[in-house]
C-alpha cells in the first residue's frame, strides 16, 4: 500500500490590486469552500470541479493507495498574500506531512501565481521548504492553474507538474486525475526528466481563451508531443497582473531521458514563438461596444465583458465605467453583475423589496478615472447570498455572495438592473443572475465583470461577445502597465517592443 499525503493552497496574486490576502481570506468561503482540514478536504470538495477532487476520485479507484488529507484552502484573487498567512498555512501543511511520516508520495493542489509580501514565487518557496523536509527523492506532484507563472524553482523541486488546459477552466478536476496518473507512475521509484522554457512575451488574459486561436492549437500540440504519461508536456500561459521576474508563458516537459525532455521543450517553445503574432488583444471602448450592442438585431443578447474589473483576477468588481456608459446611452434591457458594494446591499436589505433607495454605488477602488455612481435605485430582489452554481465550471458548488440584491437604476428612460453583492465574486455563471429572477437569455445586453470564465456559461446564449476597456485593477492593456520586475527582454504583449530594463 502507498500512503499519499495531499494538500492544497491556492491564490492568484495581482500585485497591482489593492488589499491583501490574510488568514481570514483563506478561512472564509466564497466561490470555493472555506479552509478544510483532515477528512473534510475530501468530503468538502467531492464532486466539484477542483484538482484535489479529481485526484481523490482517481485515487479512490486504486486499491493500492491510501490518501492522507492534510489541508486545502483558497482565497479570492487580490493583492499579495500576507507573510503571516503564507507561513501559517505552509507550516500547517508541512507539520501534517511530518507527523504522518513516512509517506510514500505527496500531491499539492496549487495555483502557480502566488506572490507574498516577501516572496515573488510563493509556490517555489513552498516546494523548497517541502524538499528541505522530505529530501530529494520522494515523489512530489503538483497541479497548477493555466495562468501559473512557472518558475525554475517549481520545476526543480516538483517531480511532475500538471496544468489546466482549458480557459475557462473546465478541466480542473480532470487535471487532478492526470496528476494522480503522473504520481502513480512514480511510486515504483522512476522520476521523469524535466525541461523548462519561458517565452519572451506576455499574453493578456482576455487573449488566452483556449476556445480560439492560437491557444486552441497550442494546447492541441501538447497532446501531439505526448500525453498522460512519459513523455508529456504542460503549458502555462501566465498571469500578467503579477509584476515578477517569471511572469508569462512557459512550458515544462517530462520524458524518460533529459535529451528527450529538452527536445520536446524546444518544439513547444518554437510553437509558442510562432503563435505570438496571432494572439488577438483588441479591446473596445465602452461607447463603441454599446453602439454595436444597441444596433444588434433582436433575439439573443449581446454579452459585454468588463475584463479589467474581474474579481477573479484581483479586480475590485466595483468600477463604474461601463455602468456610466450604459446610463449615458439610455440603454434598455440590460442586466449587469456583479457589483461589489456591501453598503448599497445593506441599504437594500434595510429598505426591502419594492422600495427606492439612494446612494453611491461602487467606485471605491481609488483607481484613476473611477468614481461612485450617485443615484436612485429600486430594490427588485434580495438574497442572503447562498447561490448554487449551475454552469459547467463550478457546478456542484455554492457561491457565497453575502447579503445581496438586484437593483434597478432609476434614471431617465434607462432599463438597467444591477446585481450587488457583499463579497467579491466573478460573474461567470448564469445562476448569479437567475438567483435574483433575472433571465440572461431574455435580456438585450448582459454585462459581466469577468475576463474569460464567463464564456463557458454565457457564450451559448450570446449572439456576440464584446470585450471592453474600462477602468479596473486588472490591467489588460499591457503597454500601459509599469512593470518593474520582469526579466529583461520580455515583450509586453504580442505586438509591443521589448521592455527596456
CATH architecture of the largest domain: 3-Layer(aba) Sandwich
CATH topology category name of the largest domain: Rossmann fold
Q: Give the oligomeric state.
A: single chain
Morphology: globular
Q: Separation of termini? A: 53 Å
Please state how the strands of the largest beta sheet are arranged side by side: 12-13-16-17-11-18-10-19
What share of the residues lie within helices?
25-40%
- Give the mean pLDDT: 95
The Rg value, from CA coordinates, equals: 23 Å
Helix/sheet category:
alpha/beta
Number of helices in the DSSP assignment = 14
Poorly predicted tracts of residues: none
Determine the strand fraction and express it as a percent band. Answer: 15-25%
Structural domains: how many: 2
- Count the strands? 19
Describe the biggest sheet?
A: 8 strands, mixed
Give your account of this protein's structure.
The structure is a single chain. It contains 14 helices and 19 strands. The chain has 501 residues and is α/β, with parallel strands linked by helices. It has 2 domains: 204 residues, Rossmann fold (3-Layer(aba) Sandwich); 190 residues, no CATH class. The strands form 4 sheets. The protein has an 8-stranded mixed β-sheet with strand order 12-13-16-17-11-18-10-19. The longest helix has 18 residues. The protein starts with a strand and ends in a 33-residue tail after the last strand. The mean pLDDT is 95.
Key phrases:
single chain; 501 residues; alpha/beta; 6-stranded mixed beta sheet; 19 strands
Chart the SSEs and their pairings:
Layout: E1 2-10, H1 23-27, E2 36-37, H2 40-43, H3 51-60, E3 65-74, H4 83-100, E4 105-110, H5 122-134, E5 140-144, H6 152-157, E6 160-163, H7 172-186, E7 193-198, H8 215-225, E8 232-236, E9 250-255, H9 258-275, H10 286-295, E10 302-306, H11 321-328, E11 334-340, H12 342-351, E12 356-361, E13 373-383, E14 386-388, E15 398-400, E16 404-410, E17 416-421, H13 431-434, E18 445-448, H14 455-458, E19 464-468
Parallel strand pairs: 1-3, 1-4, 4-5, 5-6, 10-18, 10-19, 11-17, 11-18
Antiparallel strand pairs: 2-3, 7-9, 8-9, 12-13, 13-16, 14-15, 16-17
Helix pairs in contact: 3-7, 4-5, 8-9
Amino acid at each position: 500500500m502507498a500512503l499519499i499525503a495531499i494538500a492544497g493552497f491556492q491564490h492568484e496574486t495581482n500585485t497591482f490590486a489593492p488589499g491583501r490576502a490574510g488568514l481570514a481570506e483563506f478561512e472564509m468561503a466564497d466561490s470555493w469552500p472555506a479552509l478544510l482540514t483532515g477528512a473534510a478536504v475530501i468530503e468538502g470538495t467531492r464532486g466539484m470541479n477542483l484538482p484535489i477532487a479529481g485526484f481523490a476520485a482517481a485515487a479512490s479507484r486504486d486499491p493500492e493507495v491510501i490518501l492522507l488529507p492534510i489541508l486545502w484552502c483558497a482565497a479570492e484573487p487580490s493583492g499579495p498574500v500576507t507573510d503571516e498567512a503564507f507561513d501559517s498555512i505552509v507550516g500547517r501543511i508541512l507539520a501534517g506531512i511530518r507527523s504522518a511520516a513516512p509517506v510514500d508520495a505527496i500531491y499539492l493542489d496549487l495555483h502557480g501565481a502566488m506572490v507574498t509580501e516577501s516572496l515573488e514565487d510563493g509556490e517555489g518557496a513552498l516546494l523548497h521548504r517541502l524538499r528541505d523536509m522530505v529530501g530529494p527523492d520522494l515523489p512530489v506532484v503538483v497541479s497548477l492553474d493555466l495562468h501559473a507563472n512557472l518558475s525554475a524553482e517549481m520545476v526543480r523541486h516538483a517531480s511532475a507538474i500538471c496544468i489546466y488546459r482549458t480557459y475557462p477552466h473546465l478541466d480542473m478536476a480532470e487535471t487532478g486525475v492526470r496528476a494522480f496518473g503522473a504520481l502513480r507512475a512514480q511510486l515504483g521509484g522512476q522520476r521523469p526528466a524535466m525541461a523548462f522554457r519561458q517565452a519572451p512575451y506576455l499574453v493578456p488574459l482576455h487573449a488566452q481563451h483556449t476556445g480560439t486561436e492560437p491557444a486552441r492549437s497550442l494546447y492541441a500540440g501538447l497532446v501531439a508531443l505526448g500525453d498522460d504519461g512519459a513523455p508529456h508536456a504542460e503549458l502555462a500561459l501566465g498571469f500578467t497582473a503579477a509584476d515578477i521576474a517569471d511572469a508569462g508563458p512557459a512550458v515544462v516537459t517530462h520524458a524518460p531521458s533529459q535529451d528527450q525532455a529538452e527536445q520536446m521543450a524546444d518544439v513547444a517553445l518554437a510553437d509558442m514563438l510562432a503563435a505570438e503574432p496571432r494572439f488577438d488583444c483588441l479591446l473596445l471602448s465602452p461607447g463603441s461596444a454599446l453602439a454595436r450592442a444597441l444596433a444588434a438585431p433582436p433575439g439573443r443578447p449581446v454579452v459585454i465583458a468588463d475584463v479589467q474589473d474581474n474579481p477573479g483576477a484581483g479586480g475590485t468588481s466595483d468600477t463604474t465605467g461601463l455602468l456610466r456608459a450604459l446610463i449615458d446611452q439610455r440603454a434598455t434591457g440590460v442586466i449587469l453583475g456583479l457589483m461589489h458594494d456591501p453598503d448599497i446591499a445593506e441599504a437594500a436589505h434595510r429598505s426591502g423589496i419594492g422600495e427606492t433607495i439612494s446612494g453611491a454605488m461602487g467606485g471605491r477602488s481609488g483607481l484613476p478615472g473611477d468614481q461612485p455612481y450617485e443615484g436612485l435605485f429600486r430594490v427588485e430582489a434580495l438574497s442572503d447570498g447562498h447561490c448554487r452554481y449551475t454552469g459547467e465550471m463550478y457546478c456542484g458548488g455554492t457561491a457565497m455572495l453575502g447579503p445581496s440584491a438586484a437593483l434597478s437604476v432609476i434614471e431617465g428612460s434607462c432599463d438597467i438592473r444591477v446585481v450587488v453583492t457583499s463579497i467579491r465574486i466573478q460573474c461567470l455563471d448564469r445562476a448569479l443572475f437567475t438567483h435574483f429572477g433575472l433571465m440572461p437569455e431574455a435580456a438585450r445586453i448582459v454585462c459581466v465583470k469577468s475576463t474569460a470564465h464567463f464564456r463557458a456559461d454565457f457564450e451559448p446564449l450570446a449572439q456576440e461577445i464584446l470585450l471592453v476597456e474600462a477602468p479596473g485593477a486588472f490591467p489588460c492593456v499591457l503597454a500601459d502597465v509599469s512593470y518593474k520586475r520582469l526579466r529583461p527582454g520580455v515583450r509586453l504583449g504580442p505586438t509591443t517592443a521589448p521592455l527596456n530594463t
